[in-house]
Amino acid sequence: MSLASYICMERQIPDQYLNLDEEDETLPLYIGPSFADKDCLYEVKTRHFHKWYVYEISSDWGIEIVEPFDSRVSNESKEKLRYLFTLMNDFLDEGESFELYTCWIGEESYPKEKSMTLSLELNQLEDIEIPERTYILITKQSKS
User: Fold this and answer.
1) What is the pLDDT, as a whole number, of residue 22?
2) Is 56 helix (H, G, I), strand (E, B) or coil?
3) Are 137 and 88 in contact (CB under 8 A)?
4) How far is the CA of 135 from the CAs of 16, 26, 72, in angstroms?
5) d(CA 95, CA 6)
6) Which of these, 91, 81, 89, lies nearest to 12 by C-alpha position?
7) CB-hemisphere CA count at 13 Å for 124?
8) pTM
9) Pick from 136, 127, 131: which is nearest to 101 by CA?
10) How far apart are CA 106 and CA 89, in angstroms?
11) Which has the closest alpha carbon to 7: 127, 122, 88?
12) Which mean pLDDT values do the consecutive 10-residue runs of the chain (144 residues) have?
């Protein structure tokens, strides 16, 4: 089985951010298809998300941060989350948000176990814990 992460937004992600260098193994993730099929995307959209456009976050493993279970996976997931936050910060307008959800492929219809709200700021990622089946709403705050 594979752990997959999904994001959902009110508007489409610009093409320049999709499948961004999927062949470049130095990047921690890209936004585009990997493990999930259309049924997985539909299930996660209808069961967990509140916005319209759903994308898979593709990497070797989904975003899962659970210490001390696996420090390597947690550290890699924090790097993926930092990279995702940086990408989203580039094109989201102030006040816009996106949703993030991670689960095992085939378990998209299972109930979420945890919910949280974050701002699109990198400094909050050091002590964060994101187990599987966690729903997160992430909003870009205004600078004022």
Assistant:
1) 53
2) strand
3) no
4) 26, 27, 22
5) 20
6) 91
7) 10
8) 0.84
9) 136
10) 30
11) 88
12) 85 73 61 79 90 80 62 78 86 90 90 90 76 90 71
Which of 72, 36, 74, 80 is CA-nearest to residue 55? 36
Structure tokens at 131: 């187990």
Q: What are phi and psi of 116, to 5 degrees?
A: -155, 160
Q: What's the length of the chain?
A: 144
**Which position has the token pair 């790097």?**
79
Query: Read out DSSP for 6-45?
Result: EEEESSPPPGGGBTTTTT-TTSS-EES-SS--HHHHHHHH
**Both tokens of residue 98?**
């996106």
Residue 8 is predicted with a pLDDT of 92
The answer to whether the CB of 100 falls within 8 A of the CB of 56 is no
DSSP state of 124: G
Residue type, position 66, single letter: V
Q: Do 57 and 63 form a contact (C-beta atoms < 8 A)?
A: yes
At which residue do the structure tokens 């997160």 appear?
136
- Distance of alpha carbon 134 from alpha carbon 115, whole angstroms: 6
**What separation, in Å, do the N-terminal and C-terminal C-alpha atoms of the chain show?**
44
